Amino acid sequence: MTCARVRSQLSSYLDGDLGSSVARVVGAHLEGCPACARHLQSLRAALEMLADLPTLSPTEGIAARVF
User: Fold this and answer.
1) HSE-up of 15 (CA within 13 Å, CB side)?
2) Distance (Å, rounded) from C-alpha 46 to C-alpha 40?
3) Separation in Å, CA 16 to CA 5, 20, 26, 46
4) Residues 13, 8, 28, 35, Cα dihedral to 10°
5) Which candidate in 31, 34, 44, 63 could, as Cys together with 58 as Cys, close a disulfide (CB 3.0–4.6 Å)?
6) 56-66: per-residue pLDDT in tens?
7) Which residues contact 11 (CB under 8 A, 6 or more apart)?
8) Helix (H) or strand (E) holding 14
9) The model's pTM
């Protein structure tokens, strides 16, 4: 699997949304490719930072227009 293909699958890989055979191929690629492994680590770090952000609620005016 190419680096571009692996990187396009990383979000699904982290979420556990890949089939087992594809997940194994992605995992094997990550073990042998330091560049993609760093990309995965960067994605994990970004997701951790996003998880720390407070949840915002829309104002009543915006909520009424959207919902």
Assistant:
1) 7
2) 10
3) 16, 9, 12, 17
4) -120
5) 63
6) 888 888 877 87
7) 43
8) helix 3-15
9) 0.76
